[in-house]
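Protocol step 4 of 6: record predicted structures for both targets in the notebook before any analysis. Target 1:
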Amino acid sequence: MFTCENNRPILTEKEKKISYSKYFYREDTPINDEVKEIIDNKIMMNPEDVILGDRINDMIEPEKIKVENGYCILPNGCGYVAAYHKMPGVTLEMYKWWNSWWTSGEESNLKYKIWCPKHHYDSGFKWNLETCGTGFPLEDVYIQDLFREVPERMGIDVEKMKESKLVMVDGANATSRVLNGDYSVRPIPTVVAHFIYETEDGIEMRTRFWKGYQVLGNRFIPVLKSDDIVTEESLLGLLEHNVLEMEGGLKVILPQLYKEEYLEKKTEI
């Protein structure tokens, strides 16, 4: 179970003795200027530029994407968050290794914490405890339905994808609610997807959150009840959280972590 101090998770004595715990103590990586301006000034994107299910294949052709970093409340009350991450030095092989590595073994909690030390507190089977944005309350996040290996579940044209630089769609249905919160407030459903593209020097990632949606029957379906509320603040928090996870987390630690925990240990066997 997690422990915290000054609104941050802390490591157990056992965790401190594990070699990769050193990544937990790294210096913070500042959020890039474009995203910082969006968050600080609450600059909401035009809902007309949102990519929903009927346009999901625009993600195969990035030149069709009008907004790479942004958020908005949609006319139906649902929310949208977009973030773009360049990851030179991170390969698709590394990313796939990471997905299986951090969720396995007795040390999965530590692996989750080193990913995003400010926001990641605890993890379990298809469940994470995190805060989506600095100053936000802790949330239980339940991953209900992964479609990592089946992008067609989201309506992606797989044949068209094969001819593009889009090499992986790491998606899932999820729900979240505030830890120990008011149980008269229902959990909010969300679709999350990380679109991975190979580049000359690594990968690019385009992350999208559709808050209030689920992928059902290969389609995006809005599932909010009439009195469910997606707040602007929650979307700003998701945007901050994702940038810290990917640009301040994976991009920073994964090349060296992959070398130490996979390549070198593989050589030792």
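Target 2:
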Amino acid sequence: MKFKQGVIVDDIEETISEYGSAILRKVKGGNYQVLPVNRVYIPKDSRGKCVLGIPVVRDRIVQQMILNILDPYIAPHFSDHSYGFRKGRNAHDAIHQVEAYTNEGVCICREL
């Protein structure tokens, strides 16, 4: 089975209806093969460029499927103070929490 190349997010419903069962069979069978990520070079200030890897749409869907299955089991074991890549949390939430701690007078300092 050959998957279509160049699928974009807007085509996802059509792609899932056409290939969804086959993708799931491959994942369950342990023979799903990810495609190479698309490398995009993002300019940095004066230090050159940063490489960003963007997975193809079908690989991103498989990643999300796996996360949806595993998250209920692993999320309860994360620290309440963890904000990175957590469902329902983001960098702004972390900043607000730091501001709240600061307003409460909480200071975690160590001597150098």
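Step 5 preliminary note on target 2. Residues 9-77 form one domain. The mean pLDDT is 84.
Proceed to step 6 after PI sign-off.
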